[in-house]
Design brief:
- The protein is of the alpha/beta class.
- It has a single domain, classed as Metal-dependent hydrolases (TIM Barrel).
- The chain has eight helices and nine strands.
- It has helices at 12-15, 38-48, 76-89, 108-118, 149-161, 183-199, 225-231, 255-264, and strands at 52-58, 94-102, 123-127, 130-132, 137-139, 167-168, 203-206, 238-242, 268-270.
- The protein has a four-stranded parallel sheet. Strands 7-8-9 form a three-stranded parallel sheet.
- Strand 4 and strand 5 form a beta hairpin.
- The radius of gyration is 18 Å and the shape is globular.
Length: 273
Amino acid sequence: MSDKTTTTIMSRSEIHNISFPNNYHTHTYRCKHAIGDVEEYIKVADVLGMKEIGISDHTPLPDNWVPEIRMKMNELDDYTKSIENANDNFPNVNVLKSMECDWVDSYKQFYQDELLGKRKYDYLIGSVHFYNNNKDWVYAYDTAKTKDLIHYAKLFIEAMESGLFKFMAHPDLFGGSFSTWNKNIEAASREMIQAAQKLNIPLEINGNGFVRDTNIKGSRPYPIEKFWAIAAEYPELKVICNSDAHSPNDIFNGIGKGKALAMQYGLEIIHKL
């Protein structure tokens, strides 16, 4: 059962003449760090007149790796059915089935066969929350040494090369770890951006980063403007702006700011998958 959330939204008359963007990155209560269930999101989307939304909770994993941030495997059936029911119950909104998938090569078969194959998910989001620095698994948001970012970039590029993902979430997630920019951060950023352009994989400007707490006092964790300034040097790169909502109230969180950042640097925005 979902944690209850009170959603305050405008009436249909109030939203007349307002265009609300599609959003392809949302989370339900099942991930243990969000609130609200699928139908609560779609109720908001329907009243606001959204045409398409993707429900993309953190994927369960066969070995239950890092269980604190994801649903259990035995919740997958209910999650999938909730999205399918929402599509039936809200004919004005196209509800897409998705998962945000931490990239580790050993999970590739599960993502490909179970999610895209058996369950016919509409798309998957790639992400790197954790990477191996040849000693330990490190949370990207808590990186201690900038030289370790080369391992983060390597894993991020492997995820894109897998061909499984429609876009990559928050490539600059590591931004909460550092107060200053340096050559190691630039090198890792440039490698990821260059690979994304070559592979034609959109990178996400993540709206949640505009509102979440900072690790370094006085700095926003992400999006990192210097990262996106480098992205502007790659004219064929595409970006997508999502809210990464963890509550139905946050369904459009930061999307406008993300688009403003993209336009500031002349980046090509993908509005629909």
